[in-house]
Specification:
With 256 residues, this protein is mainly alpha-helical. 71% of the residues lie in helices and 2% in strands. A two-stranded antiparallel ribbon has the order 1-2. A hairpin with a 2-residue loop joins strand 1 (203-204) and strand 2. Helix 2 (20-39) packs across helix 5 (103-127). The longest helix has 32 residues, at 143-174. It is globular. The N and C termini lie far apart (57 Å).
Length: 256
């Protein structure tokens, strides 16, 4: 009996959307917009640049390791973007898959990213005012800068906490005797979500901002689960879409 066409198409989409070349094609516009923002709307008159802590952490890691952007003929703030692109291209080369990009899959990833951001937006409005996963006071910026901030947070917080930390934790736990793949995954997702939560400023006047911490922890669990089930691209897209909605929606509604 022939398989249903819809089921076959869905299976192909879920497979393609987790492949590095489709992920790169999906993330490329986000990377470009954020890079343009770094030299434009996110740059202040005094030369300082507004960015997110994950991006700064990655820059410091490169500095600590002795990697210099100038030696690679790159702008100083572009090393994380270059590293992400190299990782995805290397991953694809090692996979030995075709170098053709399935553009309908890339479009579907954009829609899926928006849809997977909406549950967190709803939870945030129910639990508390939505926390920001970006730089200080991004709501005071114009719309282009807010979009750049949202995309940067999605890209580099997911790179740091999911692609790097969660993957590393899972690899470590899998090496523990009697630790099953399922247990290793749950532990890696949970611990990376906790690290993601406390990486943000959730301590106010020496006290834990409980509602903000809860939302961030739930967000970390959600994006960690998406990373495991749906891949890095959807996790980034969902995160970026969530931050964009959080930043822009109050302005659209005429509220603060």
């Amino acid at each position: 009996m022939a398989r249903p066409i819809v089921a076959t198409t869905a299976t192909a989409y879920f497979d393609r959307s987790k492949q590095p070349l489709e992920i790169l094609a999906f993330l490329a516009p986000l990377i470009v917009i954020f890079e343009i923002g770094l030299v434009g709307v996110l740059r202040h008159g005094d030369g300082s640049v507004l960015t997110n802590r994950a991006h700064l952490t990655l820059l410091r890691l490169f500095e600590w390791s002795g990697v210099r952007a100038e030696a690679l003929l790159l702008p100083a703030l572009s090393l994380p973007a270059a590293a992400l692109i190299v990782v995805l291209l290397t991953w694809h080369a090692l996979s030995r898959r075709s170098w053709s990009v399935h553009l309908p899959t890339v479009g579907g990833m954009a829609i899926e990213s928006l849809l997977t951001a909406l549950p967190l937006v709803t939870i945030g409005w129910i639990v508390a005012s939505l926390p920001l996963a970006a730089a200080p006071d991004p709501r005071t910026l114009g719309v282009p800068a807010q979009i750049a901030v949202a995309l940067g947070a999605g890209l580099y917080e997911e790179l740091l906490f999911r692609l790097a930390l969660l993957s590393l934790l899972h690899s470590v736990f899998r090496r523990i005797p009697k630790c099953t793949p399922a247990v290793a995954t749950v532990l890696a997702v949970t611990i990376s979500a906790l690290c993601f939560t406390f990486y943000h400023p959730v301590i106010e006047d020496g006290r834990l901002a409980l509602r903000t911490a809860i939302i961030l922890f739930l967000a970390g669990l959600w994006w960690g689960t998406l990373f495991v089930i749906r891949g890095f691209g959807i996790a980034v897209g969902s995160h970026a879409a969530y931050d964009a909605i959080v930043l822009l929606l109050p302005g659209w509604l005429g509220t603060n």
